[in-house]
Amino acid sequence: MRAARVPAADDVVVTGIGLVSPLGASREETWSAVVEGRSGISRITQFDVSAFGCQVGGRGPSVPARVVDDSGAHFRATDYAAAAIEAALADAGIASADWERAVGGVVVGTHGICLSPAEMRAYIGQGQQGRDRLCRVQAIGFVARTIGELFGTGGPVIGLTTACSSGAMALVEASRLLQVGDASVVVAGGTDAVLNEVQLVAFGALGALTTHNSDPPTASRPFDRTRAGFVISEGACFLTLERYADASARGVRVYGAVAGWGARIATHHVTSSWPDGAIQTQCMQDALARASLCPADVDYVNAHGTGTRDNDVAESRAINTLLGDRASEVPVSSTKGATGHLIAAAGTAEAAFCLLAMRDHIVPPTINLHSPDPECQLRHVANTAQKAEVGVAISNSFGLGGSNVSLVLTRVEP
Amino acid sequence: MTVIAGLGDFGFGREEGAFQAKRYVGHRHDRKAATPTDYFLIAAVQEALGETGNTDKPREDVALFVGASTELAGGLLQALALEEVPALNADLVAEARKLNPFFALAALPNIGIYLASKYCGIAGPADQFTCAPWADVVALQAAVDMVEMGTVLYAVAGAAYARPETDSGAIFADEPTKDFAAPLDDEGAVAFLLAAGDGLPRLRRPILAVGGSRERRERRVDDWLRVNTGSTDRVLLTKDMVSFADRGSDGGDWSVFSLPNHGVPLAATLARRLASGEGGVVVVDYGDALAAGAVWAS
Question: Which of B33, B60, B110 sits opposite A162 (nearest CB)?
Answer without folding.
Answer: B110
